[in-house]
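Recall the central idea of this unit: under ordinary conditions, the amino acid sequence of a chain determines the structure it adopts. In this exercise we apply that idea directly, starting from the sequence alone.
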Amino acid sequence: MSDETFAELFQAKTITRNPLQPGNQLEATIVSISGDTLFLDIGGKSEGVLHAAEMRNESGELTVAPGDKVKVFFLASRGGEKVFTTRLGSRQSGSPELEEAHQAGIPVEGKVTGEVKGGFSVMVAGHRCFCPYSQMDIRKVDDSTAYLEKTLTFKIIEYGNQGKNIILSARAIQEEQRRQEREALKARLSEGMRVSGVVTSLRDFGAFVDIGGIDGLIPLSELAWGQTDKVEDVLSRGQHVEVVVKRLDWDKDRISLSLRDTLVNPWDSAVNNYPVGSIHQGTINRLTAFGAFVTLEPGIDGLLHISKLGAGRRINHPREVVESGQELTVKIESVDTDQKRIALVPEDFVSREATVPREEHTPPVSKESSPSMGTLGDLLKSQIKKKR
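Accordingly, the structure predicted from this sequence is:
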């Protein structure tokens, strides 16, 4: 390659390189540590600097070493140095830095010190700031005490009166994080996948679960194999769960989840657990015009048909003889695992044929064709007539 060609390429590269703007985020490599300063390789001729205090734990120990990569925000150029930060809020930050953070959208770190009218008081680098209730969390603030004395990351959404009027938003930071997490989920999530999550809210129609950047819904019908009337009977807020992704609709931001699909399907062993003729205890959970549904175990319901109720007498509705919630001893009449149906009869059920008097289903004997004196019933009837 000729010197001229190389010079042209170098010049083109220099011209097309985008200069750093305050607020730009990038990944840098720590090349050395000197006192309270970390020197960063930012991919250019010059190095960046980062205050070591941002990388110390509560005990004052550094949590990084040369060679480690860190995500940083460009703050400003000072004295020929490019100054970076992971977030502002240390004791070394003053009003100019906070104003720069506001203009560049750089996160700041603050400690929630108390609750005031309309929100929270937050200390950021020695400055008393304000965070409204609506900006403290991506979800509704139900328990304000849960945020007190916590150190959180905020975005300065208003900076006024030379730093005496600073309004913060933790929600803005959380929304950006969730946006990034959502994009990562889109790349790896697929229907049928099993994922972990945390229950964030309970509703009448189901439960919302945070699966790492976006909430999915477990409908009421997907909570368990059996009938579920209340979500609270199965889940609680903050509970960690394993779920299966049933359907993805990224255009509408809708993810349908199933807790039921992570549980053993009771119908897989129904034939073995409920053989025909076996006796079981069940609970009536629903009455219909044609019979009563009896729960044998969660997820397994059998039908006790109205014709099998009434102990031989005709009834118009099952409620005449049984009620919802009643425990009942039943016998398995038939099992259809394909249709997920079990037919039941009461334990003491006797078929109608067995209760019909014998003379009703025994062909009468002709007097002309047989010399028999008749049945015992006939003899009794004749005796009664003679006495009259």
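Residues 266-353 form a domain with the OB fold (Dihydrolipoamide Acetyltransferase, E2P) fold (CATH 2.40.50.140).
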